[in-house]
Every structure is written in C-alpha cells, then in structure tokens.
Batch of 3 targets.
Target 1
Amino acid sequence: MTDSVLKLFIDAAVAFGTVATAVLAIWGPWFRSVFIPPRLHIMLHTPEGDPTKTTDGSRLMYFRLKVVNDRRWLPATNCRVLLMGLSRRGPDNIFHPIPMAVPLNFVWAPSEITPPVITLVKEQILDFGYVPENGNKFVPTLYSYANNFQGLVGPNEAVRFHLEIQATNFSAGRYQVFEVAWDGQWSYEPQTMARHLRLREIRET
C-alpha cells in the first residue's frame, strides 16, 4: 500500500469517525430508544396489603405495584402507568369488558413528592389502590376519575385492570392485567387481609 493510499484511508476513517460522533451526539437517544430501549415491566409489590394511617388517624390498607427497569443504564423518561381498560366478573363467572373512553393515570408513590411522570432508572413504587377501614369498596389510586368510572371493587366482586407503561423512549406493545377480588372483609393485618382481598397478575394468552 502506497503512502498516498494509506493517507487517503486514514483521512477517510477520521472523517467517518467525526461524522459518526456527530450523528450519535444528535441522534443517540433516538437510536437507543429504537434499537436498545429500556426494558420495563410491572410486578406485584405488596399483594397482601400495606397498613397505612392518614394524618387524621384514619386507617387504610394500601396495595402497591412496582415498575422495574431491567436495563438500568437506559433510564425511561417521562414514564407513567395508565389504566387502559377494565373487565368485571359477571354472574356467569366470565370477565366482561367495561367501556373506557379515556385512559387514566395511576399515582406514583410517595404521592406527596412524586410527579405524575418520572425518569425511571431502576424501579419505582406505584400506588395501585386501597380499602379504607369501614369502607365497602377497593378504590384504585388514580389522579382523576371519569364520572361513569366503574373500577371500584365491592364485596364479592372481581375486577381486572389493564395497565400499560408509557415513556418517551419506551413502548410496551401490550397490557399487563391485575385482578382484584374481595369478599368484603377488612383487616389491618396484611396476612389476614390477604385471605379476604386477592391481588394477582393475570397472564392472558
């Protein structure tokens, strides 16, 4: 290889490296979001319940989920969890879809200091819902509720909640489904409450 050919090769390699560096600096986040996005999923966190007291002394049994990022070196930006659909168990023991015109946003924990959308690096707890002492409904923890919202779970009822994680650089492409079934009994002891209210993930095929 002559000196002129070698110099041409080196100059071309340097130019390519310069252009590639500039492209990655500008388009790097887009490339990562398309080819190596965060890997997010929802899992049970306190399915047996988490006894909680409000500032006025009222007792609640909270149920929480957890959103996990398996690729911690790729934070998920503007991340939130939406309720995309509901289905309720009918008298035939079959779950029937409930119309929902608008998705609703779940609340990150702790709700007092966590905004509706976050940058998720490793994991974040999600307030899924609660049952107050002397209450007769499981209430999903959402920032807002539609006037015709039908996602409350009363005694001897069962509802399935279809959840989707959304982020700027992540698309789930599917829902995760969590079922709440309650017999109407309440307890401040998680082990006891777990026998009366069942929270579980449904692996739909």
Target 2
Amino acid sequence: MLQNDLLLNRMDDLAAKAAKAGCAASRFLTPAEAQSVAAYFSRRRDVAVVFDGGYEDAERVRAIFLNPDWGEYERGELFTTLKIETPPQNFGKPLGHRDILGAVMALGIERDTLGDIIESPLVMLCLPELGDYIIENLTKAGRVGVRLSRISLDEIPGRAEELIIKTDTVASPRLDSVVSAAFSISRSKAFELIEAGRVNLNHEVCLQSDRQVGEGAVISIRGLGRVKLLEIGGLSKKGRVFIKTGLYGK
C-alpha cells in the first residue's frame, strides 16, 4: 500500500507540473501501476492523463499528463527505440527478453526507465536520455556480442498475440471457475492457487475466488502461464455458461 501511495504522490507532482507547463510524463509503468494511476485520476478535470508505450498495445507505458486547455506532446520526443542485433555467426540459442533485460540492468539502469522489450526482431524502448548510454555500453548479453542502433517508432514490429484457443463451460464466470477451465485443473486446485496469492487478475494479485471476470481479462498463474478471457457466451442446455479463453504461447 505504501508503495502505491508513493507512486500516486509522484503522479500528483507530475500533474501539478503539467498544469503549469502543459505536459509532463512519468517513467514507464507496469500494467498494474497504470491501472492504479488511471483510477486515481479518473475524476480529475484540471489535468488529462493518457498512457503511451510508444506503439499500440504496449505493455509498459508512460503516464502523460496534459493541461486540457493547451497541453500536447510529440510521441517521438518521449521514446527512444533501439534495435538489437547479434553477429551472423551466433549459432547458439537466440537472445530473448530476459537476456537483454539482465544485460541492460547490469549497467546500473533502473527497470522503470525501460519500456517493452520485443522479440523477433529484438527491439527495446527506453527513456530518450538513456539511448546514447545504452548504445555505447551494451556490447554483450551474456557471452553474445550485440550491436544497437536507433530506429523510429514506425519501425517497431507489430506484436501479434499467439493464443491457443479453448472453449469450455462454467457454472458462472467467477475467477476460480475460469481458472479451472482455462488451465485444465480442478476447481479445488484453482481455489488453492488463488488463496495462496499465485493468481493475478489483470496484472494484480486477486485473492477472491468468487470475483466475477469480464471479457478481455488477463489471468496469469506463476508456473502455469497466462490466459485471456476472450468471450462469455450464452447458456448450455444444462444452464452452464460458455466461455472462450486464449492461452498465450510460451
């Protein structure tokens, strides 16, 4: 709770700055942090807030505060995009998100200064003030040499969702029922996982097994994966609710 209070205090400072200067932007936020900030500022009229990660459907985003009367921003001024290339002779396992993140943070860079790291091809977003430093100092990820170069936001590859689709029926679209169906585990096991705090609903831990889950919700379980509730349909002949879920490819 204290950590969330500190986050919102920082956002209040940025909102005050935007009211005077027209625009102010946070560092990169996690999905849960972005949801908290959006809820906190939902009724404010003195300042507008938008969330932007540099490209459509970005997971990590910056909260951008604008004076509604005259504030505006240029997307290209808030993000630096770095393409990461490996030598052609690298025949080992392709570098992934964890490899790049670990190598960058080993340089002493804080996580909230980095946006998404996209695979195939490898692209990373960061705060503009860090672009040159990362290019100059990130020369290896583990034992693999890397070369970084700037690209424009328009060159960021689309990140298509690779989902394994599954249909099922549940008594009702409550969390334990959806978890049970989506992950093919028993209802009692689903309840245990929720009680143990291992289940995240929309990027936040949820301890309520009877919480109603809506279409578009993302559920993740440490060790089991992540699913999206794609559709809540009608009733079966036995009065159960049809649902369609998508398991994210690993």
Target 3
Amino acid sequence: MRRRRGLERRRPSHDRWLVSYADFITLLFAFFVVMYSAAQLDKRRAGQLATAIQTAFLQRGSLPPKAAEVGGLSEQGTPENSPVGNTEDQELLAANVRKALAPEIAAGDAAVHQSREGLVISLREVGFFDTGSAEIRSNSRPAFGRLAQALQATHREIRVEGHTDNVPIHNSRFVSNWDLSTARASAAVRLLIVNYGFDPQHLSAAGYAEYRPIADNGTPEGRAANRRVDIVVGHSYSN
C-alpha cells in the first residue's frame, strides 16, 4: 500500500499542457497585434504619399480637375479633404476678391469658387477679351486691376489657365485653340508681373484649349461659359 501511494504521488499532471497552450496563445495574439499595427501604419503612409503626389501634380496642372470641381461658374463650397484647406485666410481672400469683382460677378462676367486646388477666379471672355484676341480689353483693365490688388495681399502660388470652347480658331495670329488659350494665360501673367509687381517665381501659365469645359459646348450659352481665363490661387509660400 505504501509503494502504491508513492507511485500515485509521483504521477505527472495531465493539465500542464494548459500552461504552454496559454503562453502560445498569448504570443500569437501579440504577434497579430504587432502585424495589424504595422499594416495600419503602412496604409497611413501610403495614403499620405498618394495625397502628396496628387497634390503636386494638381498644383502644376498635370492632372485634370475632377468632375465635382467643374460644375459651372457659380460659387461653390470647398470640398472635403481639400489640400489647400478652408482656412480663415482663404475665406478672407475669397471675400476680398468677390468684393473687388462685385460688378463683374453681378453681370455674369466673372465668378469665384473654391476647388480642391484652391480659390478659382473665372474671367469670362465676354467680359474681358475680344473674340480671337489674347489681350485683356482696355475697358476691362480696371476690373483686372482691382483683382490684382486683392491678390497682392496674399502670399500664394498663382496659376493662370486659358480655356476655350470647341469651335476651331484660325486667324492671322492663332492657328488653334491651344495657341489662343495659352496666349491669354500668358498675357494675364505678364500684366500681373509688369503692371502690379507680382513675383514671377510664384506665377505660372497654362493653356487647355477646349479640353476642360465647365459647360455643354452644344449650346451657345455653354460655349460662352467655357471661353474663360481661370486664376487659381493655391498653396501659401514662405517669404
């Protein structure tokens, strides 16, 4: 009897595997927590990289605006996740521009709205250019001057874009809509530099011809809306 009781006392416990199993589960859980955290961090970094690349291309005019940004010349709110941001400074600038161009906006010759790229000031051909001409009309220079003064108070990158309708042009100076749209943008930039002292390093000009319409080219009203020069006020820069 004494020997049998000793054997029973030395018999190993069959429940010891639970300790190892619990350790294994704990380590496995910790492993997946670390992997999940790393995956989330990579997603955030990838998203930040994608946003930065898209912002850079948009700022330089290498990507077309999205459909939500070209709904027309009416005033619009700033979309969510705008790279520029709906800051108080941006809102103040928009208010000053609207005040400077109040007569032209009321007449339908100009419009101001926010986009993902920044503040967009549209100057329609009917109010600022003669048909087939790249130079701003003399009687529209005062309005352009008021706009320039409003923009002088801000330190932001400015891109001037020329746009046309889809009717081909061919005159003694311009052989295509590309030429006309680019010439109008360049003429506006030249005025900002020569007449109003804007820093050329923070200005750019681009011509898009008929390929970025904001209205239907199938109607006279739509074609008139598409013939415009857009002044896009983008990111701030350091002095």
